[in-house]
Design a protein that fits this description.
This protein has five helices and six strands. With 213 residues, the protein is an alpha/beta fold. A hairpin with a 4-residue loop joins β5 and β6. The N terminus is likely disordered.
Length: 213
């Protein structure tokens, strides 16, 4: 498990682009989601919402928070990058950061964090159709003597990110999801794609709807 995305960076992370080319961009999908029972009565529409990327790579964090803040604003919220609210030397202290968030009048937070960065093997059907697999004893002899052949296995790199939406006025988690991106090329593009999917999900769930007065 990795706590940051630094190993993914092939180009400067400042090159975060929200208009991604699907032909070259790794697919990102939410594998699991959770919604609070209070979500139906919670909305961050029109409110100040902090965009927080939890990562020790400063360049990636700043670029990711700017991208997330823009998406939040485009969906009717007042998106603001967390790096503009909290000094970086105090960011990792909950007690110190809390004072800055309260001073800024933040009413909601959307936070992204890498939870896993791993390689996943997929065995192709042809592997088990080979003569070695047709009988137990045929496989037994093969299994003990076989040398790894990359032609039988596809190895994908899978990065999982958790996206959390908090209501600061209620001090509670409203929505959570874990997404997976296969074979990412650039850290910035992973963040950008997850940002778009997460904010779209907020809108679909009604969390970004306008507040009725």
């Amino acid at each position: 498990m990795h706590s940051n995305l630094r190993p993914l960076v092939g180009l400067p992370a400042v090159l975060v682009v929200l208009a991604l080319d699907t032909a070259v961009t790794a697919a990102t999908k939410f594998q699991s989601v959770w919604k609070s029972p209070d979500a139906a009565t919670t909305s961050l529409g029109g409110q100040k919402v902090a965009a927080l990327i939890i990562d020790k790579d400063e360049t990636l964090r700043v670029a990711g928070e700017e991208a997330l803040a823009r998406e939040l604003t485009a969906r009717g919220m007042q998106g603001v990058p967390a790096y503009r609210i909290v000094p970086k030397e105090e960011l990792q202290s909950a007690d110190k950061a809390r004072a800055w968030f309260e001073k800024a009048g933040v009413q909601g937070v959307v936070a992204l964090r890498v939870v896993t960065d791993e390689k996943r093997k997929t065995y192709t059907t042809s592997t088990w159709m080979s003569p070695y697999y047709s009988s137990f004893w045929g496989y037994y002899g093969y299994g003990w003597t076989a040398v790894y052949d990359p032609g039988y296995v596809r190895v994908d790199r899978v990065v999982s990110l958790e996206t959390l939406i908090f209501s600061m006025t209620k001090n509670s988690l409203v929505w959570a999801g874990v997404s997976e991106t296969e074979n990412p090329k650039e850290a910035g593009k992973v963040i950008a794609e997850v940002v778009k999917q997460a904010v779209k999900e907020m809108h679909d769930q009604g969390l970004a709807k306008a507040i009725k007065k």
